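Appendix B, Record 12. Input sequence as logged:
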Amino acid sequence: MAVSNKVLLATSVASLLASSLTFAAPSETPPAFVKRISDQLITQLKQNKAQLNNAAVINRIVAQNIEPHVDVQSFTRLVMGQYYSNQYTTPAQRGQFTQNFRDSIIRTYAKGLGKYSNEGYTLRPYKNTNSATPVVMIDFKSANGSKIPVAFQLNAVNDQWKIRNINVSGIDLAATFRDQFKATVQQNGGNVNKAIASFKPNADAVEKKIN
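Logged structural output:
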């Protein structure tokens, strides 16, 4: 290979690496994004407070106000862990897991929001670290007046922020659900397909850890 071709190849590779490391953040700041979706959610909860015991109503609120802002694919990858690879699963299996996990998450959020009783929240001061996955911290006020710290880890998808993971009172939801899924695989004798079909995130176990 001629020297000029080697230089050209090296330059091209360097340019490709540089472009892959360049992060163009959405125009909306991370705390502004979290505040916007939190305010929209609370507004919907207040407007439908008398009907929050209705599963159809609360599921609709979650589907409209939370689901569109979650990076389900990244969340799925975190939860599946080692099984999110061609070594263990096919694209079709991962797609099925994503759908099952999405439906379970909607029910999980709905169960928690059904207990809403006019609680509010406070945004913590945000420190911009120029990270591709920034974290925004808020403190939710519980019904008994105590504060529940919640950290939203974000990810940019198509120039918009999406929620990649959530940490509640020090409990990493993706890591917790990953442990649950791994246990489900083991309970099914290593049959990942059966585990995918039967897996349901155990939100009650998470709540017990928090309390």
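The longest helix spans residues 91-113.
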